[in-house]
Amino acid sequence: MRKTTALRAAAAATAALLTATACGSQRGQDAQDTAAGGACKGQQTTGITDKTIKLGGIYPLSGPASAYGTISKGVAAYFSHVNDKGGIDGRKVEFVVRDDGYQPPKAVEEARRLVEQEKVFAVFQTLGTPSTAAVWDYLNKQKVPQPFVATGASAWGTGDQHPWTIGWQPNYVAEARVYAKYLKDARPKAEVAVLYQNDDFGKDLLGGFKKAVAGSGVKVVAEESYEVTDPSVSAQMASLARSKADVLLDVTTPKFGSQALAADAKNTKWNPLHIVNNVASSAAVLEPVGFKNVQGVVSATYFKDPADPQWAADPEMKAYKDALHEYAPDADPDNQFNAYGWAVASSLHQALDAMKCPTREGLRDAVRSLKDVKVGMLLPGVTMSTGHGDAFPLETMRLMRFKGERWQLFGKPVDTRKEFGPTAK
């Protein structure tokens, strides 16, 4: 995927600055910390001992994407739950959370603090495409694992210049393929209007969708973008409505997802099928609009919805809700972002268990050598797999439609690897 010029320039500038000031001291510390013996001799053990493991996370606890901040509560609840049961391979997890306000320069500052001051073993979860792009050069030069970033940009699984970074959730190209397949099957002559965030996130999903519908009867007839700093998307929605498209593809983050859904509901002269991307599908996004106004909206998912009664007796769901009640009593257990945090933390647990060496290199290799790994919070039929030439852990999703007061799954799991081939490398 081609990164935007602004992000590429920001990443290069910050990497140059941080490398100049940090490389010598950090690598010197790592040299002192390489205590592993045998086949692991010489590998980095910064942030991990026989009894502890220190992880850092960077989230927008404030700012325009602060709705995502609660993911950190789901992650922290999982690690607290595991710690009470003896930890991960006997190691208690310390999870240090930093706030970047969804601002790439701030993300760089926080990544530096986590690596150089906190001495974390890994920077687990940087949230958002802009923030992740701003820090991955630095973390890779420092040889610090950046596993399971909270963004679906296809960049995290392409190329071989950033071996210490890997995504987790289905990438935006894979998600776009699911919507394309649905429309080609259900509405083969659909005319689609697209609202998208003007950054790598929005362009990645939009580009994947266009490629997936190419040569079919499904056509994109209108596009409008917005900036994350915009106060609203009302003007963009008014413009898209004039296209009279019968499908609206909504590629937004939570704040703007709510605005787009509200604008759609108010416009009684335009009634398209509204497809909202996964990252803006939480009930926390839909509820302010009014559930009566979002009936029939379509999205896709890959993990269990905590508000869906079909999972009420599910052992993993029960463990999640009990732990959230105990360790994060102010967090809503039905909020999908909290369940996301639990699911991704559980996935990291699996990768840590699979390390051949209790080292940074061991984690780097483990997340790229997953084989049909099952995670309790993932939907049946969805497993994690990576390997040579495939750095996308999850590429299977299921469609869901909002009905009543919750999402309802429909159709079968769509394995985009099998349907479309591997995501372009």
From TrEMBL:
SUPFAM superfamilies: Periplasmic binding protein-like I. Residues 1-24 form the signal peptide. It comes from Streptomyces populi. This is Branched-chain amino acid ABC transporter substrate-binding protein. Belongs to the leucine-binding protein family. Pfam families: Peripla_BP_6. InterPro entries: Leu-bd, Peripla_BP_I. Keywords: Signal.
